[in-house]
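protien #1 (seq + structre)
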Amino acid sequence: MSPLSNSSDPKPESRREAANEDRAASRRFRIRKVVDRFFQILSVLSAIVVISPLLFVFVFLLSSGSSALTWDFLTQLPKPVGETGGGMANAIVGSCILVAVATLVGTPIGVLGGICVCEYGDPRLRLFIRFIADVLNGVPSIIWGIVVYSWVVLRMKTFSGLAGGLALSFIMIPLILRTTEDVIRLVPSVYREAGLALGLRRSQVILHIMLATAARGVLTGILLAAARVAGETAPLLFTAFGNRVWAAHLQEPIAALPLQIFVYAIAPYPDWHRQAWAGALVLLALVFCMSIVVRALTRQKSP
């Protein structure tokens, strides 16, 4: 064999190094596959852990309250103490009224506050408003009940649906404000610049371009806030107080599903316990329907 051919042959050390590198690469590949499979299984288990409480609550409510969930339950007033039967029609309607009042009061303030944080004011003022909104989001709901009790109930000398709706609106305002701010910030700035370049006033740009583009996201935030307050009980104990008959107007106590569930759950009557579980099932169904509407809105991409 010629010296030239001997010099071109790979050395044994080079062959061993190449084999070692191949084995190391194969070992790293197997480790990555094991780690990947481990985190896949961990993710699936985490998703199951997240979903399990909801499924458990839903199945438990179905088993405990489905027997009391009849047409009479949805259409009749509560029976007198000691009598079986009756329903929570006044509480269902009362909850809808309270959420509607809270939405009518909280939506304009929250949306305008979100616009102010995005479009107007000094940067320090924006930071301050954003900080206050975050703090208010963490305030316990019972505090709002006490505040409205001091401001409204004591002055009116009566519990009322108006006070209950106002307490719920205070919970909704910071949620809507932060959602509106985040959604408007997602609108490309070129939309604003194009509107200003066409000679539109700033208010017209905000109303007809920025807010119109983010309208679906703003509506989603409003519905999420409404679903959030629909199950509140503590603030209504100090404001709406509850009622076993139909409320004639907003200036008198009004029934609500969370209040009725609370009263029936602590009562010593088995029939009331069944109706409390049925009321909780109806309340869960209402919140679930709101969530479906939110998902339907967010499924379509904003323009």
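ok now protien #2
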Amino acid sequence: MTEFTSDFRDDLTRLMQWRRDVRRFRTDPVDEALLQACLDTFLLAPSVGLSEPWRVLRIESDEARTAALKNFEAANATALAGYDGDRAALYAGLKLSGMKDAPVQLAIYCDDATAKGAGLGAATMPEMRRYSVVGAITQFWLTARTYGLGVGWVSILDPEQLNHDLNAPADWSLVAYLCVGWPEELSDTPELAKAGWEDRDASLSIQSC
């Protein structure tokens, strides 16, 4: 049985502390072998019923990237309209996407119709497949960080429009649009906290029932 040392646990905690949602990237390319090493961690992720429902689209063409960026800009404008006063001014100043600079962009999907796993664990809670994809993304993200790469999750998007623009299969559900590359700077503080949007809660709510 593999035993993990206290030093390993400390390093793991530091890794999680330094895993940030990166939105400011250098345009330097990412080595293909390095990117593949990060993507390979999807194959190590747990999944409901061993269904392995994650599907990855690499967004490389100018057409696809332009469509994704326009999607974000439209959704971001709509989101801004939902705020007013100081909150609107603060929102308008936030950088919420690295899509213009990130050398690698990935659309991560869940295959809701996969036959793999024979529906085990997903018959009563089909959302478990999507949770499985999120777990795989987390492993990818942490691994990327160990190599010095940054990852940014763009959630201000119209999924239906993006699926159409990327010609994704009808049974695939968008889980994440990820920007990947070398960060302009490293920080262990969330960018939204530094900008004054929200503070991290240092307490954990645990209740008995």
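The two ends are 35 Å apart (CA to CA).
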